[in-house]
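Encode chain A's predicted structure.
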Amino acid sequence: MTGSPASPAPAVLRAAGLRAAPWRGGTTREIATGGGDGAGGSDWRLGLTDVERPGELPLVPGTERVLTVVDGELLVLGVEGREQGLERHRAVRCPGDVPVAAALPTGPVRVLDVVARRGAVRAHVVVLELSKKRPHPVFADQFAVLLAGRAVVTAGGAETGLDAYDTVRGAEPESPEITGRGFLAVVSLDPVTPS
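Encoded structure for chain A:
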């Protein structure tokens, strides 16, 4: 599914409808892409990547990646001779255009994978705990992915239940709001202003 983070509809992108694309180490399910000059390239891509075997992540020239383990225990990344352990719900930024080795010391993992074109978009990921009493708004340059638990999104006066890995596309001026119990990954895609 594709779209701009500023697009008002659809508010909910269902995980059950995502198509899996295999790569050497596992599969990736694209949630959304957007931006770009209309010449075939996009400025950002949001997806769920199942890393099932050790090996190198696919290269994406001219980009930065933000990786967040959302299921499983530990992913160890090897980037330019340095290793870094990536625990669940902790986001790590790394270049998308240099080899990144993925090791799985505790078994397969699922990763929220955000790829942003360098110089066009700066991506950020924060994992937060949901509240039933305090709605969390999702703004126009954001997506919110339910990682675990039960949640409801309210948009345009209607309530919609969310399943694991369903994604809410942000909007303004009437931002959808999410309430419930569980964990939510909020992905912000901030356009880079030329200096």
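The mean pLDDT is 90.
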